[in-house]
Structure formats: C-alpha cells, structure tokens
Write a structure and sequence with these properties.
The structure is a single chain. By secondary structure, this protein is an all-alpha fold. It has one domain. The chain is 96% helix and 0% strand. It is built from three helices and no strands. It is elongated, with a radius of gyration of 30 Å.
Length: 122
C-alpha cells in the first residue's frame, strides 16, 4: 500500500523535473540566440565600417596621388612618392608593431572581456 502512495509523488516529481529541464533548455537556447545575434550585429557593423573606410581611403589615395603628381610635374611621380611614403610607414609599423599594434589590441580585448564578465556578475 505504501508503494501506491509514493507513485503519485514520484510522478509529480518526474513531471516537475521534466518541466524544469525543458525550461532550462529553452533558457540556454535563448541565451545562445542572444549571444549569436549580438555577435552577428557586431560583425556586420564592423564589416560595414571597414568597407566604408577602405572606400574612403582608396579615393583619398587617388586624390593625393594626383595632387602630388601635379605638384611634382608628372602624375606617376605623385603615385611613386605616395607608395614610397607607404613603404616607410610599413617599415616603421613593422619595427614598432609590438608597441603600436599588438599591445593596444590585446589590452582592448582584455578590457572587453572584463567588461562582459562584470556585466554578467551584476
């Protein structure tokens, strides 16, 4: 007789556990969806910004090449001077890349992760 009294208890416990697991699964799915939506929004925003920046820089480089060419007497001199300037810039960046590029990017990533972890803790 005691087995009959415990069966509804275990059935109720099983139903509640099943409901809890379904709720937790739904919560995890929604969290994954939110994180992926934020990731794709961030990627799209940055990709759009980079493409816009590349287009603007390309037009500025053409304009600067023509301007320098007019000042130097021949158009190809302007583009040659511009490419020499970029060659010097690449050399300087390769020498000081740790200080100018790697450290600021690494610090930015660490700060972003700390910001996300502090938001998660609140």
């Amino acid at each position: 007789m005691s087995a009959n009294h415990t069966t509804p208890f275990f059935d109720n416990l099983l139903e509640r556990t099943e409901t809890l697991l379904k709720t937790k699964l739904t919560q995890v799915e929604l969290q994954v969806l939110l994180k992926s939506a934020k990731l794709f929004a961030w990627l799209f925003k940055n990709l759009f910004f980079c493409l816009l920046l590349v287009g603007i820089l390309a037009l500025l480089n053409l304009s600067l090449g023509y301007l320098l060419g007019d000042l130097l007497g021949q158009r190809y001199y302007g583009f040659l001077a511009l490419s020499f300037g970029y060659f010097l810039l690449a050399g300087i960046l390769s020498i000081f890349r740790s200080y100018l590029l790697q450290r600021p990017i690494a610090n930015s990533i660490v700060n972003q992760l700390q910001h996300q972890l502090s938001d998660k803790g609140e």
